[in-house]
Design a protein that fits this description.
- This protein is an all-alpha fold.
- Helices cover 74% and strands 0% of the residues.
């Protein structure tokens, strides 16, 4: 089964093959997981709304999972209906690579900017503590 994932013709064929039941369930599970994760993150954003930095982190991952899940289901629909160009498997490859780059950018943001933002927030809280309300 994995041999055809290494085949160039599989990814860039003008007429993609029909989805096997295993592939269909795999894609349904993966994109469903993304949408469920986006929903869970939306609830976490609501419950931790007082922590500005944590909400910012949750929002970044929420957008990522929601976008990947929705676009993935659209591509899966086109593939299931065997629409020639829009149902091609290279769209999955583009979606995977795009989401991987997006995930890496979010992690880099977390590593570089979050410590700076925490320091600035603590400094602002210390400063505002002495201001009249």
């Amino acid at each position: 089964m994995f041999q055809r994932f290494l085949n160039f013709k599989f990814w860039f064929s003008g007429r993609p093959e029909a989805l096997t039941p295993k592939m269909l369930w795999f894609f349904l599970g993966a994109f469903g997981f993304c949408l469920i994760s986006a929903l869970v993150l939306r609830f976490l954003i609501y419950f931790f709304r007082r922590d500005v930095i944590l909400v910012k982190i949750f929002k970044k991952f929420h957008r990522l999972f929601l976008t990947v899940g929705l676009i993935g289901f659209v591509i899966l629909f086109f593939t299931y209906e065997q629409i020639i160009f829009l149902g091609s498997y290279f769209w999955y490859l583009i979606l995977f690579l795009g989401s991987l780059v997006w995930f890496i950018l979010v992690v880099v943001y977390l590593i570089k900017n979050i410590p700076k933002e925490k320091k600035e927030l603590e400094k602002r809280k210390r400063f505002e503590k002495y201001l009249p309300r």
